[in-house]
Task: structure prediction
Amino acid sequence: MSRSTRRGALAAATVALTLTVAACSSSGDDSSAGPTTSSSGTGSAAFQPQHKGGTLKLVAHAAAGSLDPQVNYTLQYWQLYQSMYDGLLSFKKVGGQESFTVVPDLATAMPKVTNSGRTYTFTLRKGITFSNGKALTTDDVVASFERIFKVSSPTAGTFYNGIVGADACLKKPASCTLPKGVIGDAKTDTVTVNLTAADPEFPYKLAVPHASILPKDSPTKDAGTKPLPTTGAYMAASYDPNRALKLVRNPHFKEWSRQAEPEGYPDEIDYTFGQTVESEVTAVQNGQADWMFDPPPADRLNEIGTKYASQAHVNPLTAFWYATLNVNMAPFNNKLARQAINYAVDRAAVVRLYGGTNLASPACTILPPGFPGHVDSCDYTKGGGKTWSAADLAKAKELVKKSGTAGQEVGIVVQDDDVNKSIGQYLQSLLTQLGYKATLKPLSANIQFTYIQNTKNKVQLALTSWYQDYPAASDFLNVLLSCASYHPGSDSSINISGFCDKGIDTKMQTALKSAQTDEASANKQWSAIDQDVMAESPVVPLINPKLIDFTSKRVGNYQFSKQFYMLVGQLWVK
Amino acid sequence: MGQVTDTLPRSREARRSPGPWRTAAGDLLRNRAALAAAVVLLVVVVASLCAPLYAAHIAHTDPFQSHVSGTTVVDGKTVPVLTPSSTGLGLGVTPIGPTWDPAHYFLGADNQGRDVMARLLYGGRTSLFIGFTAALISCALGTVVGVVAGYAGGAVDAVISRVLDVIWAFPVYLLAICLSVVLLTNGLRLGPLTVDAGSLWLPVAIIAAIYVPYIARPLRGQVLVLRNKEFIQAAIGSGAPVPRILRREVLPNVLPTALVFVPLMTALAMLTESALSFLSVGVQPPDASWGTIIEDGLGLLYTRPTVTIAPGLLIALTTAALNVLGDGVRDALDPGARLRGGV
Result:
């Protein structure tokens, strides 16, 4: 399970969000926008100069491709970009729940929202300089928004298509201009962004790296391995995807907001690629590396958890692993058959296969615990209850019998890494027990995610996972299970189950509208939708995973952002 | 008298003459190394054939079903088959190790909680089946192709030889992996012949196909030499039909060579199958082969190395035995080869 591929997968997956945005109506409310407020939270701890300096050594099995922040869509580099690039807004650089908070970054304050939620006005901070020595101007902001389309950013058509003029830019990226969509005023240092419809999630979309502000003269194509100038604490000095990435301090950086872009501790961050995961573990154990990107292999977990417990940091993720059941193909076009699988799956077994109870917890809902809209609820547990306690194989067999689907063939498609394959083998064994003729098809992680989305491949059951883009219930329910996200015959049909329930879809649209004015009410609606969807059983939630960060003995000040994971620049090695 | 004394010894000698096959069998039985190898093979084959008996009546387990949440008995105590770590941060889950109790996970469990010993025996059936069947098919096809190309000559030989060259040009494993990846997705459909994606016949067909040139080329060379021999020329001169010449004159002369290839190719095919299965493009789960068991054990190398080492040892033992036996068969069928230093 490569964390680098997850975001890549999302690139193809967020088509549904297009329609989400379009469906949002104006609220008529001219108050400050945003699902979160910048003033809330505890704020970041003060900088401790005695820990400044040294070289932080990171290792990964492989690099994550292009270094261009408007192109790359991997957690591996999004994590680094937090200390390199800035947008008008950003997620707060702190650990814990506060990390979901959007705060002003290159903007002086949260935007003024007018025109029924369709116009966002930002004032740029003064005195910010790119790492190439050029001052940040409103022209850079306008050019950066246009560049999102010019470089065909993976989320251009989903996150930013609501900007006025985006339609034309999506059709002709090379000549993209947004004269009415993004307007800069150099005299007042303001930038106005006009949307075609209100989008309560727009601040989140401005806080992800694809909305990074780059110099206006940046190339209008993927910069690839050539580092682009940064505004943040670090800049890339060199990058060779086959060998290493070297980050050094941005000589022009002066901390303007500790919440948005804090000063970093290490003088240099060396990221080395090409090691095996086993050797990564050994390198961290020996102090030859300070952190490993890849999840430690299963047979080293016990060793890490005992001998190196003080160096292991385990954090729950707002994500879920699940099995998709194709509601348009036998046998899972039968609701009873789908429910049977939900009853039959022993989530505790899946937790074990993932690495144990301290690395995952059983899932029974689509929205992960701690996520907006999540409410404990479990329709498919033995004896009933709000959380999953045990599988009910007897009931599952009874449902299969009732459905009349026993004996049918079921193909299971999984990724071919150890964890995915072992869960797939378990599901195959379980389906055989239920009376199906199950076959397992492990595919390379590079192709499995697109393969299972395309209806032409007739995938009946697939194992996959979903990691949040930003903290909104719609990022799970609407993206994964709305009618709009089902595109038969396309590789970008993230509604892998092919589930389309008009009644539930209407409820989703209502919840999206509610989110513009009353987030709490919207979240209640989303939790009800979660339960409605689970009653139809198009998916089988399996586990909510946790992440291990394994750091060397000398590393201090570990902080885990729920949005972008470990804050690399905040680690100290002195 | 003279006639009598002249005739009797000759007829006695004729009765005593055991014939080439019996001579070869005698030579083989006198070859201690080959005999030992045959015994080892026999033990492996019999043990593998007994896999269902072991699983059902001794281990009382289904080696193809996951037992992730299962329990077993060790020293009278009920313990989980997969034990979550209870020390430190409690990270990771470790399958039970060898108990040396045939009734309860003799060689321990894999990451699905399946009995490794039972899977080893079932894996042996699969690996031996694929190895032997693929070798037989490969040798049979290779013999036919080699004989036809060598005897026909001209355009037929040129076409067949170039096709063999093309196959030969690809590294064996690369070709096998490519074929496997393609065929494992959709299965094999050749006219009326249909092989499902998960069928064991798929790796058999792939392995058999890629090794055909390795048999056909040396046999073609042998036939080219034979074709100019007097007895073949005599048969041609006497107007014998080609199929009859091939069947009666050519085939009996190349058959010993083809037979020598069988045990050697079986070993090679088993190794190839193991490699493909290890790379997930051979035998598909839940079926077990020694290669798949090694792959299953790879993620347990630090905690439960037995899962990897046991099938590895069996592969090494079996292929070594097949090679020694193959050498014995070669020496028996073609004693001259020993002097020449090879087949």
Observations:
- The longest strand of chain A covers residues 539-550.
- Chain A touches chain B through 41 residues (CB under 8 Å).
- Confidence is low (pLDDT under 50) at residues 1-43 of chain A.
- Residues 519-536 of chain A form the longest helix (18 residues).
